[in-house]
Design goal:
Blueprint lengths: L1 E8 L4 E8 L1 H4 L9 E3 L9 E9 L14 E6 L14 E6 L7 E10 L14 H5 L1
Length: 133
């Protein structure tokens, strides 16, 4: 099982993407939206992350207030998974639960505490050989 992880840095307003699989992916199982994750367990020592959302393998968005099952059809007026044309309109939509499970494809994280190393290394200046090619 593997997850696509999007890590958002509020200070720089940038998002970093990483594929996580194996033992690192097991850290996320059974966690809920709002739970905190130690970055050292997923390859980012010194960092602390918070789960802010995600989507399952079929593309249904995770919603914080859905706690039962894998997917659920709920009647919603606003929030995650809605895009209404008229004010006050409610619609029945399918959303994923707030628990990370095996069918979750993407997880969104927010940096709470930054480590010493940047999330993505700064690229070095091009060498002389690369400039001539």
């Amino acid at each position: 099982m593997d997850f696509k992880v999007n890590i958002g840095e509020p200070k720089t307003a940038k998002t970093h993407k990483k594929e996580i699989s194996g033992d690192e992916a097991d850290v996320f199982l059974s966690k809920k939206i709002g739970d905190k994750i130690d970055g050292g367990k997923v390859g980012f020592p010194g960092y602390e992350f918070e789960i802010t959302g995600g989507s399952d393998s079929s593309g249904f968005p995770m919603r914080k207030d859905v706690t039962v099952g894998v997917r659920k059809k709920i009647l919603i007026a606003n929030g995650v998974g809605t895009n209404h044309k008229r004010k006050g309109m409610r619609i029945r939509k399918t959303v994923a639960s707030n628990i990370v499970h095996a069918k979750t494809a993407q997880i969104n994280l927010k940096v709470l505490k930054a480590g010493k190393e940047p999330l993505t290394p700064v690229e070095a200046a091009p060498t002389e050989e690369a400039k001539t090619e």
